[in-house]
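HUMAN:
Could you generate one sequence with tokenized structure?
ASSISTANT:
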Amino acid sequence: MLELRPAGPGDEAFLGRLAASRWAHLAPVGPELVGLQDRAQRREYAAVPGSAGEQLVVVDGEPAGRVWWADGESERHVLDVVIAPELRGRGIGSAVVEQLVVSANGKAVRLQVEHSNVAWRAHLERAGFVEAGRDAVRAVLVRPGTGPLAPWIVDGDPTPP
């Protein structure tokens, strides 16, 4: 069972491990740079108007990742979804996006995906997201409609039946 709940002080150890895996490419420069980058990103997301704050992704009672989003008047902006590396490929990210789409109550849902993440982008496009812009590193994808994602997306199967 998947749930999203506000991250709290008891979650810092897990969030620290998640940050270390996410910013591992900075570790050779120094572990303090990993912490600095993570704190800067958290402050940036918290400052976005309508931010829901840092939410922990919990699967069957265990932390599995984190997500940040912000609600505007007509759009939900998914700022960040990070799943622990050892849990990726199990459909957890898809289930998080599904939950964010459904709970957006008819708002468009916008997110960004790095160009290098070809499989995740293709997965999102099959779920109804379309490109709305791009820069050198990322594409902006928007899901304009309402309603749930296809069940095969939630189940983590990368191909439709």
Summary: The two ends are 24 Å apart (CA to CA). Strands lie at 2-6, 55-59, 62-71, 75-83, 108-114, 130-134, 138-143. The chain is about 30% helix and 30% strand. The chain has one domain: 2-154.
